[in-house]
Amino acid sequence: xxxxxxxxxGKLVGLSNSNRTARRNQPVQEFNHGLVLxxxxxxxxxxxxxxxxxxxxxxxxxxxxxxxxxxxxxLDFPSSATGLKGGSWIVSGCSVLRDGRSVLEEYGRDLDxxxxxxxxxxxxxxxxxxxxxVNGEDCGAAASGLPPKLWAVVDLYGKCTQVTVVSCxxxxxxxxxxxxxxxxxxxxxxxxxxxxxxVVVRxxxxxxxxxxxxxxxxxxxxxxxxxxxxxxxxxxxxDKFPNSLESDAGLTEHQLFDVFNNAIVSFYxxxxxxxxxxxxxxxxGGDTGAGGDAGTDSSFRxxxxxxxxxxxxxxxxSGTGTVGGGGGGGDCGxxxxxxxxxxxxxxxxxxxxxxxxxxxxxxxxxxxxxxLSNNNKTAExxxxxxxxxxxxxxxxxxxxxxxxxxxRIDKLVDKxxxxxxxxxxTHNPNNLDYPATMTxxxxxxxxxxxxxxxxxxxxxxxxYCEFSLDELQ
Length: 473
Fold this sequence. Notes:
globular, six-stranded antiparallel β-sheet, 25 strands, 473 residues, seven-stranded antiparallel β-sheet, mainly beta
């Protein structure tokens, strides 16, 4: 295929050099609308490679690259690559997104750190895997199961303002042989580790199994007497959930709840292709930039583990949760949410200096964009139309045995896809460095997101129940 860009592109892109060089117009005033695609679909094994020609320091975030099944000839170009849906895989920073939703964190090289002159390429392997190449080195498989017809995508986003296509051909045989050797060695190591380290915890608190057991007790609602379903440790990615769980005797219900610490609610909005053309842009964008210029965006679009952002004045509508009455219809005036009372309740481990005999409220330490009110029973995400992350709140004390923590959804906005997420963690909020979303935590944490369950950031069940949290009103 020709190493050229398609003549149709984002509205702020100018093409030159026989459609091999793309430049984002108004690079200091605008960080979005710099999307370009390859002229033709990728052939298997071809690495579509571009060179970063120019960068500016006005924004955070930089070049993004990936593939899409959408034909550029008929594409309604979104403001950024992460706004592409319909079968699109994008590497942004060090994360991989599928149709705008993060599926893999801390992958490969951080694209935001690449400099002028660096080369970055994208490849669909003959096995249907997505590979990122940086300066001639393969970063490994980022995704699998890709369709056969895909166009390369490059987003001149944030700091990146100009790129040039330098090649679109298979990698040299030496590079592929090196990659295959590394992959073979990794597979052998993984097989050895699985044989030696696969554990299921029964009655103990080994860190290798707590998360799987927490998944069952906190979310699945399947605890009957002293039996809980059994789930072995898994290294599956967030987009790969098992379809069924095996049941067997395990921890007693009381032992299981002794492992739990705090309940979590995350007021989360991921991106939506139709998300506005205001300062935030449909695809998110950079952070506040140098000097906090107006019109910038602090979402990083895929959260990238960012826990910054600061709190600004409340504006517009936001996703809000309120503590509901015990087993009732969400009466925010009643903060005692235990359906069976507190007699015989025992505090969980690792509670620190937190009180264990007070009503369940939101902990005063919370995500950077959260505003608490109503005696810490109501939480609101600031700047809801500009930012979809950093909205995590936790309870002010650990959950007691057989205690239910319930919230009511007060407000929603239509700009983002994704919605409220809820779960439990063993982390003490007093000591926690709050992540952008709790699904970023890699230990002691279970979250329900949409209709699936994630344990320590990895998908452990695809369809937990018939409804999806994203569809709640």
